[in-house]
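Journal club prep — side note

Before the paper discussion, L.F. wants everyone to see what a predicted structure for a comparable chain looks like in token form. Sequence:
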Amino acid sequence: MKTFDTKLLFAGMACIFMCGNLMAQDDGFNLSAQRSEDQNVLRIPGEKKNHAEWVINPTPHKIIFDKSGKLDISTGLALKDKQRKFSRDLDFITSNAKGAKLTVDFGAKVSAKEGVKAVSGAYALSIGKKGISIIGYDERGAFYGIQTLRQLLESPMAKEKQLPYGEINDYPDLADRGVVEGFYGTPWSHEVRISLIDFYGKFKMNSYLYGPKDDPYHSCPNWRLPYPEKEAENIRELIEACRRNRVDFVWAIHPGQDIKWNEEDYKNLTNKFNWMYDLGVRHFAIFFDDISGEGTNPNKQTELLNRLTDDFVKAKGDVSPLIVCPTDYSRLWANPTPQGSLAIYGKTLYPDIKVFWTGDVVCSDLTRETLDFVNSRIQRPAFYWWNYPVTDYARNYLLQGPSYGLDTSLTENEVSGVVSNPMEHGEASKLALYGLADYTWNIAAYNPLDNWERGLNELIPEVKDAYRTFAIHSCDTETGYRRDESWETKTFRLSEWNDKDAETLEKEFKKIEHTPSLLEANCTNRLLLEELRPWLVEFEKLGIRGKNAIELARIYRSGGNYALFWEKYVENLMTPEDRKAYEAHKSGTMKLQPFYENAMDDMAFGFLEKLTGEIPKDYKGISSFNNSGTILTKLMLDHDTATYYTSAMLQRPNDWIGVDLRTSREVSEISILQGRNSVDDVDYFDHALLEYSDNGKDWNTLMDGMKEQYIIHWKGEPVKARYIRLRRLDSERKNYASVRSFDVNPLRPETLGFHFTADDIHKAMYMFDQSLGTSYVINKPISFDIPTGTKGYTILMNKPAVPLTCRFFNSKGEMLSETTLDKPFSIIELPDKQVDKISLEGSAEIYEIIPNK
């Protein structure tokens, strides 16, 4: 399932709305024009409950405890395993022939007497004077009853080695519940797979579909070949682990990209199935997702599936019905007509073959509406492939939030099963899978927020609070399938400051700062800690810079010591190395990093305005898209054409992207670079016009009817404007829109009004651009003439690597005097003698050279 490879090259984009871009597969299959997401972030339903007595996941359908009587289990339990199937599954009990009786049995007759529902996995568990009884409808049901007993014994109610009398009558709502390892990227290690299979069994999930896209023997180029000996042995061990945990190991093949609809490839496919059968596989799936070419033919697909059912599934006798992922697995690009692929499936595909569906888009909520759409066409309840918490489209994120977006009114009549496609970080995916296990077992009772709180304690009980701090701030991807994040944290802009909110937020940042060390010291799950560690390193840094931003804001608001403020300000800036590291392992993207970014930007803007007495030329990016209010728009104003602002949603009629100049200005030149490149990118306005406005209401045209232009340049008689925008005209294009740079009145040496020299004259102009968002690193001497009326300069720089030598020259080029600058905030006072030129020599990053009048 292609969930898209996204590479965003900037920090912390954004509050509640979003970003993202789409990349085509290496094989040329391009989904860029096919994806659309709702960028609104929905709140997490449910509420936290008090689980002082017991915690059972998934939530049982019926559970009654009678505290008037209790069973003493302090001496252990005497097992009576009537069918001799479960002795190895009860290693968590203390066996004692003289202890309380534990009876385990299963079967249609015995379960009917106990009122157990006649579905696979159903069970009844009773606790009374005679002991504990577990009766399953089938072996799997009895196993699930054992898992419930395990959790009861781990609950607070069993702390004194006594269990209250009670009854649990339980069953799964859906026949298929589990996981599809179907992501792009590094497949799970064998150790992690085994750990996950044990997790599935413990929480009553019964399906594990093995289909990692980067397994070459699952997909191209080697799907026709048998697994090498080592890989084959690993699969045998996975099948055995699944057997122990009563999980169906479903082996999937992905042949569609290069399959030939001929007898030779049919033979290749059946040979591969027979090899897998000999390894122990009894459940099979065929994926036709994310392909192009002749393999997408739905008639050929159903013909193949039906033939395999006759020749292989029925012939073997012990193989379950096939599962298929169609090429049209999402409503976004599925042909809804009777001639469409889904309708062809409905008309021609054997009714017992299960059909995957991802919803309205690739990553989307499970809703009744999307099921009504697909089920009416495929003529059966769909098998839902939920692309969460997968991050193969955004690998620099680790999703640790609640599992929500799942309709709690559905039944098996609408959806045959649900599987989650997790992250390549298998252990870190368990928190989401804990939720999916709960939902698929007891849909109507599912409480996402409460489940998440319980799941945190399940994964790292020894340091739950620290894990919770990390998890609550590591939920969103900023792109595609948005997830709520940091919902207990209130952030604010500098203009909204109040001391109470600032103190509360400061405490949270301090807690974030210390969370990684607590997890490192106390987490006993080695595999999970290894997966979390790269993000924990950056999480600590996020806490430090957020805490420092609040301290800095207090200095800024006091309005007194400019030198102290600027020194602390540059200390709290992210270096290019900091930003690169954060980009690789992001968290806190919805509120925390945006707070830091916005606070630093707001203080820089206000500070420069105080120093100059003018509105700085630190322009703001704006657009008609939902993410216009986020710091993502800075990407088109950062003078780096490798980064870009992206709409993160499909372009619509009259959409636009532009800049707010913050005040009315004379505009005489505009340069824009659309798209992620200027050669063959698809994310741009291919029919557009350039407009300006002084009030944001009345617009005038500068350039009209531009078609297929990545590079846009206008130069002419000055116009008075505060707003400039590029607006979409009529077009068939529905891609995202991206802009790498949007430059208004670009600085040129001849427009500065004075002469200066530098090693790189164009980048050196950042020292005079009236913006603290840019800087220039000097390693070689620079010099500049002093305009008439200038009494001195304020130099804003980072801490100099070596002190700067400032020399003063007269009009004849004679040096009059010199001084040393070694502070980030330095003021140059001109000597009494006539000074015409200043030179600076040394090594420092200079943000702005401000003339003092």
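L.F.'s comment for the group: The chain has 17 helices and 29 strands. Keep this in mind when we get to the figures.
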